[in-house]
Amino acid sequence: MMILLRGILIVLFVSLIGCQQNTTQTENLTTDSGLDGFVEPEPSDWVKYITPVREYMYYRTQAVLNKDIHILWDHYPDLKENMDHKQGVNVEKNEVESLNQHVHLLDANYNIEGYERMKVKTINDNEVILIHASMNYLRDDFDESGGEYLIKVFLERKNNHWTVVKTDEYTLSEYKEWMKEKEQI
Which residues of 55-65 are buried (b: 16+ CB within 10 A; e: fewer)? Predict the structure, then answer.
């Protein structure tokens, strides 16, 4: 009888240990938490965010290579609106123009998670993706233009599909501030 009671207690104890909250996951959430409420998406969610961001980056680089902002704007007409160069909002047109002055671009490469994993936050049923990417363009003299980009990509669900409705590139001063805050975390 004692052996049976002891066995039941051991099984009950082991079962209760399995019901405890996973503190590792909670700890990771705070250490992986980005600034302004951004967090790394779960692997299953990562897949749904990477596709619209990758699509945006493709059309953005194609617009630059082909010297035609309409390649991007045909897919994302909202990016034509509310351009603010000083704030870094919807500035793709500036990139198309500036990167094509005095040089001919041959090719483009981008790495969405070139510096760190993308981060996500939800605002009013829309998603904001923070990417710390590298984007490089090969020039006809075989030198490169481009570099490091820190961009918030605003996604909205339209016709059962995520689409980019706004971009906000960090300006140099915003980037420096972001780096200071990141060092303090």
Answer: bbbebbbebbb
Give the pLDDT confidence score for residue 7 in this predicted structure.
52
**Per-residue tokens: 44:** 């299953």
Mode of pairing for the β-strands spanning 144-158 and 105-123: unpaired
In the block, which residue shows the tokens 């980019």? 164
What is the Cα–Cα distance from 147 to 134, expressed in whole angstroms?
Answer: 5
What band does 89 get if pLDDT is binned at 50, 70 and 90? very high
DSSP 74: T
CB atoms within 10 A of CB 167: 23
Tokens of residue 112, six digits: 């969405």
| Torsion, CA 126, CA 129, CA 130, CA 133, rounded to 10 | -150
**If you compute the radius of gyration of the chain from its CA atoms, what whole number of angstroms results?**
23
CA-to-CA dists, residue 57 to 12, 15, 36, 53, angstroms = 53, 48, 23, 6
Tell me the pTM.
0.78
Residue 131 in tokens: 């990417």
No. of H helices and E strands in the chain?
6, 4
Q: How far apart are CA 165 and CA 156, in angstroms?
A: 6
